[in-house]
Amino acid sequence: MKLVGIVGSAKDNAPVRTLLKFMQKHFADQAEITLLETRDFPMFNESNDQSETELFQNAVTLIEESDGVIIATDEQNRTIPSALNSFIDWMSFNLHPFEQKPMMIIGASEDMNGAASAQIHLREIMDAPGLGPIVLGANEFVLGNAQDKFDANGDLIDQGTIDFLGSCLKNFIKFASIHAGIAVEENVEFEPGVYEVDAKGHNGDFKVKVTLSKDRIEDIDIDTKSETKGISEPAFERIPAQILAGQTLNVDVVSGASDTSNGILDSVATAIKQSGGDPDILKKRPKPDANAVALPQEYNVDVAIVGAGGAGLTAAASTLQANKTALVLEKFPSTGGNTVRAGGPVNAADPEWQKQFAALPGEADTLKAILDTDLNEIDVEYRDDFVKLQGQIKDYLDGKHDYLFDSSTWHEIQTYLGGKRVDLNGQEIHGNYDLVKTLTDNALDSVKWLADLGVEFDMSEVTMPVGAKWRRGHKPTEPLGFAFIRVLSEFVKNNGGQILTETRATKLLTDENGKVVGVKARNASGQEVIVHAKAVILAAGGFGANTKMVQKYNTYWEDIDDDIATTNSPAITGDGIELGTAVGADLVGMGFSQMMPVSDPVTGELFTGIQTPPANFIMVNQEGKRFVNEYEGRDVLAKAAIKNGSLFYLIADNEIKKTAYNTSEEKLEEQVKAGTLYKDDTLEGLAKQLNMDPSVLVDTINKYNSYVDADHDPEFGKNVFDLKVLHAPFYATPRKPAIHHTMGGLKIDTKAHVLDAQNQAIKGLYAAGEVAGGLHAGNRLGGNSLADIFTFGRIAAKTAIAESQSVELDATSGPSED
Ligand SMILES: Cc1cc2nc3c(=O)[nH]c(=O)nc-3n(C[C@H](O)[C@H](O)[C@H](O)COP(=O)(O)OP(=O)(O)OC[C@H]3O[C@@H](n4cnc5c(N)ncnc54)[C@H](O)[C@@H]3O)c2cc1C
């Protein structure tokens, strides 16, 4: 009999560990007991789902393949220790390996009463939804004063105790054997028909039609319109296919689309209930076959790319354009990473286009401030360009032009100034001049390259996301980052590129000289995948969804809460940084992460509520008072919000609402109904809903309106305004800072070589996108990351191809005109 012994304590000298080790040794002839340490697992964090990691998957397999589980708990404050509690939370979240598993609870502690209270509590916990073990009753083994009960070899001293423990184990083995014998499948019966059910998805309800025959689920038809394109598709494809193939509801949710997955599973369960069937029987059935294949899959390509986000797909498309072969490894079921979540604007100075748009009041003040800046404040390497910019601004202001000014030099200087920061240790950081200049000189070419590939940009509007500091955003007509990912994925697939989804890169392969010659990966069926390549490009994104890693490196924020939300995809956990450092890559700027000030307070999402360009932001704290210049950079806004209790509100009226780029009237109404967005016909009423003094909010808005009229904000110095708050209904969107971007990463040069600590390129290895550091330094401007990933994705491919052919080509496509 195979049993798993769960060590329910994080302490080094925990008696429960000694007890389980003793059982493992002493009763080896009766059961093979494998120990599982709860302290090896991270603390439970719902917003950072790690269920898919190897650590968790191995634990689940171990438990599922066992005949029973023994949980040995210590006691802490009369209940189970936090390490065990956290482990159980993970097991009830997305994994459910305890379902129908025979379980025995035992306990040991240094306290006189043993872990009796913890054991009682653990039984109650095991009744919670999502766990579902069959716990053996009245067979409690409790060991008090445990420090005195073992000898130096870790063996129980007292024979009576050993005998009692042996009889408990014997009972459990009998219990588990009987269970194995009776665990026969129950049959289901349905009233045949087509059942239409409203499913709850990520963005609201969607309709699911379930066709049932007498004893089978025959078809599941989903109306997919309302869910997020590019994120939900794998759930729409996979969950119904697995339900139908296995005739089971015991199906794993799809990572990154868990709401949609659960929505589908719940809707099929509802349909079964409506037909008179019992969905619980289907929930207890085995999972569908994973079809594991033992032999590794091997590939040979010119360029292997890790990560199918914007940078990776750009590198793949560029490789294919050069008639070379490309293979992309993607750990998630769908392509897109953080790029598919992006708001869309790509920063690129295009002065001829920008001239069509009128300057906004206040923009000239920002330019004048550059003229007034002392050159000594500017780092030496940027000074020539700064002087050049001052000349451009002077010409523009002297010419009394009323159009929107821009130049690639202005973009460069804003990127540099926007990223110049000092951390808590007094360490100054600013963007590497060569990287910044490469970005700003080539961003427009990247936009043109995307347009040639088929991305349609809305040229009727020049826009900027929060913290961009200037209007130079090129926004696609299709929604959000999906526009880029759709076009790039299609290009790659249609031109012979391979994208292996659900295939996680685990190791870079090197030859005897340390040159990178390929990647090792593992796919969803556990099969090893080996890609031999002339060059490898790391494009695995940053580490914003890995709170522990952000905390570990942080030198910028005074405190980062363990349960801080993130705007990132759960896939963004710093794998590329680990892969690179394992072959000697150096890191740069790792202590600097960016918080998105205007995130959803619960989910961390960016695009709920009413998100407008910052000219129309009015941020008020929980008292109803403004607290910052809303046109500031993201870190300034996030710090100000944290100082004001983190939670704050974006106030909008009916006209400001129309400038939002993220929503529709229907979505807003749903959020108002759900209580996640506040709406009222009067500002006073809105204030009351927010528990604010109405006179304070009204006074704040009156003042703000007067500043818009005067083009001058004497309180916080906001200098770019658009609309006043005048027209009912009025809205308040609750917001809170969440981890958004990690500026640090692998050290690269302008040709995207990954560098080691001696600034030498690691042969065969390149990096692009958020996985790389040095460019955005201490703070990234909104809209600069998309420019970065498309520019450096192209550069990485060009360099990789050139060097794998041993031909030195110029990897950049030349500066664009100012
Ligand atoms: C909500 C949101 C909105 C944003 N809006 C904007 C915006 O409007 N403008 C802007 O400029 N920037 C924006 N950003 C930032 C920008 O989207 C990201 O910085 C950028 O998309 C990162 O691109 P990337 O290609 O480097 O990584 P990603 O797009 O994150 O892709 C990395 C990919 O690598 C995969 N991966 C990771 N590890 C492995 C592994 N071991 N094996 C295989 N695959 C792996 C991941 O699954 C992922 O698909 C936004 C970010 C977020 C989260």
CATH superfamily of the largest domain: FAD/NAD(P)-binding domain
Uncertain stretches of 5 or more adjacent residues: 807-818
Number of helices: 23
At CATH level 3, the topology of the largest domain is FAD/NAD(P)-binding domain
Tell me what the structure shows.
With 818 residues, the protein is an alpha/beta fold. The protein has 4 domains: 180 residues, Rossmann fold; 92 residues, Alpha-Beta Complex (Sufe protein. Chain: A), CATH 3.90.1010.20; 270 residues, FAD/NAD(P)-binding domain; 145 residues, Succinate dehydrogenase/fumarate reductase flavoprotein, catalytic domain (Flavocytochrome C3, Chain A, domain 1), CATH 3.90.700.10. 34% of the residues lie in helices and 19% in strands. It is built from 23 helices and 29 strands. The strands form 7 sheets. Strands 10, 11, 16, 17, 18, 19, 27 and 28 form an 8-stranded mixed sheet that branches. Helix 3 links the parallel strand 3 and strand 4. Helix 11 packs across helix 12. The longest helix is centred in the first third of the chain and has 24 residues. The protein is globular, with a radius of gyration of 29 Å. The C terminus is likely disordered. The site of flavin-adenine dinucleotide has 44 residues, from helix 9, strand 17, helix 17, strand 25 and helix 23.
